[in-house]
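Progress note, project year one: complex with flavin mononucleotide.
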Amino acid sequence: MKLLEIQSSVRKENSVSRTLSNEFIQAWQTDRPNIQHKLRDVGINPPEHPTGLWAKANNMPPEERSPEMMAALAESEALIEELLWADYLLMGVPMYNLSVPSSLKAYLDNVIRINRTFTFDPVTYTFQGLARGKKALIITPSAANFVVGTPLGKMNFCDTYLLSVLGFIGIDEVSVVPVPDQFMPDEIRQQEIATAKAKLMDLARDW
Ligand SMILES: Cc1cc2nc3c(=O)[nH]c(=O)nc-3n(C[C@H](O)[C@H](O)[C@H](O)COP(=O)(O)O)c2cc1C
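Model obtained:
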């Protein structure tokens, strides 16, 4: 079993997503000693953004790409290989300005690529994900509480966006554990962390 952990908090210390991720992995690994675990820390080491050359190279058949174009796509290719390698994705994703951290968006721009992680048929206008057969878990803290049905609920473009893009590349089995109210008084904040941890410990038994 192969786990790819993707962290996107810019905080190394006191990060709720990183702490809960570590606790989940420890619990999950207890009965699964043979897990191979890779960490892709885009919060600390963000990938390059796509460039014009990158986009041009991406849109042409691989055998026609120049050495410069292949170099422009090299990081993306490595990130895709790593993603395709994994059976499980654990994503630590704090909400930043109602969406995902920009480093994670750069990562997604690098791994969501036509004929690598999805296909698109311009005749039938249908797409198919090529990263199928994986499970994903998203741990997503936020300062506020984005309760569905409230005005803030309509402003959550974080896990809603991730569910769309993961589904687009064929990853449909996704669990989301929100950790809201992280800017509330400490008692409420800790209560939300405890609730999220309890959900994660449940999930660790049969993920
Ligand atoms: C740049 C930035 C933007 C943020 N934007 C939001 C936001 O739009 N909504 C929100 O509820 N929290 C927002 N937050 C708060 C974080 O989601 C919250 O502090 C979370 O706990 C961070 O995750 P971490 O503890 O794993 O670092 C933002 C934090 C940062 C650093």
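The longest strand covers residues 135-141.
Residues 9, 11, 15-18, 94-98, 141-144, 182 surround flavin mononucleotide (CB under 6 Å).
No further modelling is planned for this target in the current period.
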